[in-house]
Every structure is written in C-alpha cells, then in structure tokens.
Amino acid sequence: MRAMALAAALLIAGAAAAPAQAAAAAPADPRPDHVFADPAQRPAHGTAKGTPGPGGGGLESRILPIVHDCSPALRIRAQEMTAAQLAATCDSLANQDAFFHNVVKDPGPVANDYNTTLEVDVFNSSADYKNYARKIYGIDTNNGGMYLEGDPSKPGNQARFICYERTDVSPGWQIWNLNHEYTHYLDGRYNLYGDFGASQTTPTVWWGEGIAEYISYSYRGIPYTKALAEAGKHTYSLRTLFDTTYANSDVNRTYNWGYLAARYMVEEHPADVAIVLGHYRTGNWAAARSFLTSLDYESDWNAWLTSVATTA
Fold first, then answer.
1. Above 70 in pLDDT, residue 226?
2. Which of these is catalytic: 60, 149, 181, 209?
3. CA end-to-end span of the chain
C-alpha cells in the first residue's frame, strides 16, 4: 500500500541483488508475499505521519539502534541486522529503482514532491513490530507493516516504511513486504501527485496495489502463483477492477486481481498506461478515471486471463 502500505519480500542469499538469480533459486511454489489466512499479514494504509510520538523518539533510538545509510536517499534503522543483511537489503532496493523506472517510464519526480529520502525501520519480528511500532509511531499494527508517506509537499518530510523480519520462510530470512512497499514509495514520488488522500479521490487501487505487486514479483523473478490461479476463474471484469477501492474490496480483489489488472495494462496496453499516468502525475484524477472507464478490452482481457492462468 502507498502513503502507508505493505508487501514484498527480500531473499537474503544474494538473490535480492539479482532478480534472475532469485528466479533460479526459488522453490517451485514460492510463498506469497501475503499470508492470506492471517489478516495481520495484510498490507495496510494509515493516516499517521510516522513521526515519533511523545516519548517515542527515545524509545525509537533504544529499540532501533542500528543506523545504516545505503545512500543519501535511503536509510535503514534496525533492531538487529547483520552487515550481510544490510548490504543485501540496500542492493535489493537500489537495483529495483532501475527496474521500476523502466516499467513506468516516468519523466522524474512529480511536482511539489519533497520525499527525497526514505527511512526503512526494521523490527526483529512481528511481535516486536506489534509491541513497539504503535508506541513509537502511533500507528495501527494489525498488519504486516506500513508505509507512511506523510505530506510530500512539505520540505523535510520523512517518508517511512515500518516493517519487520521473518525467519519462518525459505530461505530463512526476509524483510516482510520489502519490495512491494518500496514500490509504493517510488510510485508516490514518480507517478501519483500529492499525498495518499489525494490519490484516493477516484478509484486508483487497481494501479497502486496492482503495480506494487507486479513490480515486486516481476523484479524478483518469482511467479505470482496465487494470482495466476485466480486468473483462471475469470472472477472480475477489467472494468470492475478499475472501480476497486479499499472499501469495496477484499485481499483477493485488491492484490491478486490488482496484480492481474496492472500486469495486463502494462504488458498489453502500454500506450494507455502512459495516458493514465500522465493524468495521475498532474493530479488530474477525473481525467484518468474518464479515460479508464471509456476502455473496452473485456474480450481480450478474458482471453489473456485464460492464457496466463495456472493451477496453484
């Protein structure tokens, strides 16, 4: 999710820095970014600014003592990470930049966006995240992590992705939702004018969550088996997915079907995506909405779903 969101994983064994290697090393049926049976693992949006609350600043320094700068634009604060884990995380995010820009073909940051830096705050576990993140940042922690965009029009605003590690997944260590959430940061800076609330004035979830899933899986070279299995069910028309909001959808529609809609449009109709993003980048949400709702690709959409469908 954007302006507070979540989803994507880091494969520490060097795969993070090389998506092609991740594909080769991935198990036949890789675990999804989201544990759909557990609502607490879902990505989440929030409205908190992500700045430490009363007394939170001191607690933040004590609980997240490791401070590591990947670059002038990216900082990691962690409860406990090894040098190798820090390096692999930095590499994963740095390499994702070029991948993202190649997909969306942006001309640079949107106007009046001062989110020039991102801070990634990493807790040791889901339990630590739940125990400390609410106290430090004043956020809801019944989720798998949260991206806090804040007010990007304010110079000095600090965007944050607040997350946690998992050790119960193959190959043994992940920052949960890392690449999905980083996509939200990039999408907000290069594609979506204004803050999170502005982008929700018309239904944009198909793009925001869909492109975050699409970039996360395609960058890492991992098949999104859950979504591809859903494709064979032909549950939603493309037009219906253009109407998706957080209020009218569930995890399946938001993430699996958001991925399918974004992938279809990016791969099959890139010229249309360029038009939509041109409107999103200037905050002309109504024009983007009008254009999307004028499209009629339903026959081709259904044929495409059949062509990509697999059995999970």
1. yes
2. 181
3. 25
Q: Is 181 among the residues known to form the active site?
A: yes
Q: Indicate the pTM of the whole model.
A: 0.84
Helix axes 56-63, 126-137, angle to 10 degrees: 150
The predicted-structure confidence for 161-175, as pLDDT tens digits, reads as follows 999 998 777 667 889
Distances (CA, A) of 221 to 10, 14, 146, 209: 12, 13, 24, 18
